[in-house]
């Protein structure tokens, strides 16, 4: 079976019903997505499938097909963070940090579609992701800062870019 | 400038005694330092100047020997050392380091003594100092009780100052100038003529130099790192998926395991049938371990799946079979033969109740709670060639070492415990269960590193829980407030249960039963607090803020009822009763922040609660709105006094997290037992706070307290009562049982 993870096609030999999370973590050693519950209740395992945030703990790998999988590692690196990741650092969001990969993936998907979300829209998008440390207020603040910076960046471009390309932009930076 | 005497200095630093094969430091008598663990494992070119500073060609590493489970402790501990070395946090590497008695925690036991944390009487201080002796002799390296900062505040600054001192002395000799002419900056010792020598080049020679017998610590106004908000050292990695938690450990040829243990906690396994599991894809081995069975496979998911395919016959547990029976046991504990303590008995409560015309009374209940950190319990062990390595997120690495030695019969020198980052804990990782299991499984797979991961279901149902409890109070209330209070608290003994599991006998009264109630600094003429011990074998443990987690709710709901009984303002009444200055100031602060007393829209309400826990007075106001009969939490205000605020932005994070942790449990936290088994298995049943429910939290940090305090826990206790009191203010409905969602809906 072949899957496309962070722009790389990877060969995996596993049971077709193995959830994508465990293919990523134990087979491909992509450790950013976290195991928290196994039943899509905490979303620490969130990755993007063609830009959509999905709980990888509950998606059989055989259902992935040739969809593009993006994990937190595909957004940016400590040296070159995405705007969302940078906002997370600027607001000092993380405490234990275990849920934050999932939070950032969900927030990135939201801001890719909507770079000026209202509080209600943030509530709706983020409420599937659990944080036991209670960092929610700082997540909200970080999303607002990231949104502002994304709008600023978009304004600087002569032509507004469509949402999915933003992620590719981050990927290019990662590769450089 | 604070001066530290010779004995204090030598306690924490290096008394040099030459031993064969090198220079080892210290021996194990009190007043003398523990062995420096860094000395045991030095590579070529490494210099360990104290147990807290390791220098080699890669730079300077500070050892922050406490569990980083989200509270930012690695950053603040490193800042203590960096400050005295005139370094910024960007210039050092911070590591947890090896387990060692040298990293014993003296402050953690202070909470266990029968003196309030704010009691500064000579007797209280004597007992407090005395308790440091067994703490040191036990050499227990433990993170808990919000004690890390209080414990490290002096000793890690002294460690930094001593290293700076020997660097200067070495440089003075090398440059042939007086030490008084030298300063330090950015990792260099600098002379007045501009000559400079780096710490790195001085390190090896400095290791042979004795520090001065008296060292001066920097006075607070000269601080450049401490007292300022620092960027936490772990946050870039945690924001990019690159932080390595225990569950992320990866080793060559690793195998993956999971386990199922009797869900009737402590009960035996009668039999099991693993025929089906054995034949499943990816399964390598199935082994019987401690009342359960572990599956070793080529992928964690294969192990999960195979564990689920095993059929078990479980024996009964040795505690009541269902929730109702557990509460019945609590009800039955309010008897003199179950009395555990009565540390507060001011005035004559019985006489005051006897003559009162009117008595305000009520009964309150709280349920069992799980810790449920988001990273399920897991550990990795690698047993080969007479050696064992263990990677685990643990709050007691010295205990993990002890357990590992006992299981394997290996000498401790052949065992390495690697303490990893922890995806939350809230008290859960004080337990050894998952570490012991992992080591036992690894012994069955010699040569192969084994990572054992619990399913969420295993984690939720095999916790050691915050005990359920009941409080009963009677009060006599006059026009200005209470003249008599009789508060009775019944619950399980957390310290005895928890310490018992690591073989430390807990004798005498269990402070957890009354903590957060008996020591509250309200002046009431007749005031008695009695603790009753509930005895059963259901495993209980410290849950963020320990006894204050339930007693804060009991006590502050009671105080609110007392105020409302005579239509007194509940916040002003608290201020009037308060005998402790910093506590009065946090109440005044939170009144100011919340604009207490100002008019609110119809259907809104404000609740106030206060709790002194771990030496920190915390006051919180919560504002709610009732929307279609359901509660919406609008805003939370919290004022805390930490004595000295070492990192304001991180303190704010801990308080807002503590408030939300308390609110999460208050709204919906509930663990139930049926047939001896915990019924809530995952987050669809154990509901935690979601994003849309979390209020904005405004935090104010005060510094009126007498000494530096830790802040991991004190934000939690006032949250539940502040919310319940707000619901009363908005609806007139007094809810006397947690979780509140049993009695009112939330939006």
How would you portray this structure in words?
The complex is a heterodimer of chains A (176) and B (747). Chain A has two domains: 2-74, Ubiquitin-like (UB roll) (Roll), CATH 3.10.20; 83-175, Orthogonal Bundle (DNA polymerase, domain 1), CATH 1.10.150.120. Helix content of chain A is 41%, strand content 11%. Chain A has helices at residues 20-27, 83-90, 100-113, 119-126, 136-156, 163-175, and strands at 2-5, 8-11, 46-49, 52-55, 68-70. Chain A has a five-stranded mixed β-sheet with strand order 2-1-5-3-4, with helices on one face. In chain A, a hairpin with a 2-residue loop joins strand 3 (46-49) and strand 4 (52-55). In chain A, helix 2 (83-90) packs across helix 5 (136-156). The radius of gyration of chain A is 16 Å and the shape is globular. Chain A starts with a strand and ends with a helix. Mean pLDDT of chain A is 92; it is low at 163-176. In chain B, 58% of the residues are buried. Chain B has three domains: 3-105 and 140-238, 2-Layer Sandwich (Aldehyde Oxidoreductase, domain 4), CATH 3.30.365.10; 246-317 and 377-453, Aldehyde Oxidoreductase, domain 4, CATH 3.30.365; 323-370 and 464-742, Aldehyde Oxidoreductase, domain 4 (2-Layer Sandwich), CATH 3.30.365.10. In chain B, helix 15 (547-565) runs parallel beside helix 19 (719-731). Chain B starts with a strand and ends in a 16-residue tail after the last helix. In chain B, strands 14-15-12-22-19-20-21 form a seven-stranded mixed β-sheet, sandwiched between helices. Chain B is α+β, with helices and mostly antiparallel strands and 747 residues long. The radius of gyration of chain B is 27 Å and the shape is globular. The chains are: A alpha+beta (176), B alpha+beta (747). At the A-B interface, helix 1, helix 2, helix 3, helix 4 and helix 5 of A face helix 6, helix 8 and helix 18 of B.
